[in-house]
Amino acid sequence: MNEPIIDPSTLCEGQREAIREQYSINKSITPSEIQNAYQIGIVQTFEWLFGKDFFEKGE
């Protein structure tokens, strides 16, 4: 297995829980839901990383 890009020991417990929750949600997606879930996941990931306000008009 490759070394992780982000060292999990640098995350606070809240970040770990949020990441585990997102992983769990995505892990449970069925093959018929993959395309839609992928697109939604991309948007959610960007909003999670940068905040929703970053993508509002005028930013």
Average per-residue pLDDT, rounded, comes to 80
β-sheet strand percentage: under 5%
Calculate the terminal CA-CA distance, rounded to whole Å. 40 Å
Uncertain residue segments: none
Helix content: 40-55%
H/E element order: HH
Helix and strand composition category:
mainly alpha
Can you count the helices?
Answer: 2
**Strand tally, please?**
0
Let me know the largest β-sheet: none
Radius of gyration computed on alpha carbons: 14 Å
User: What would you call the shape?
Assistant: globular
Which key features would you list for this structure?
59 residues, mainly alpha
Structure description:
The protein is mostly helical. 54% of the residues lie in helices and 0% in strands. The chain contains 2 helices and no strands. The chain has helices spanning 13-27, 34-50. The longest helix has 17 residues, at 34-50. The chain is globular and about 35 Å long. The N and C termini lie far apart (40 Å). The model has no long low-confidence stretch (mean pLDDT 80).
Topology at a glance:
Elements: H1 13-27, H2 34-50
Give me a quick take on this structure.
This protein has 59 residues and is an all-alpha fold. It has 2 helices and no strands.
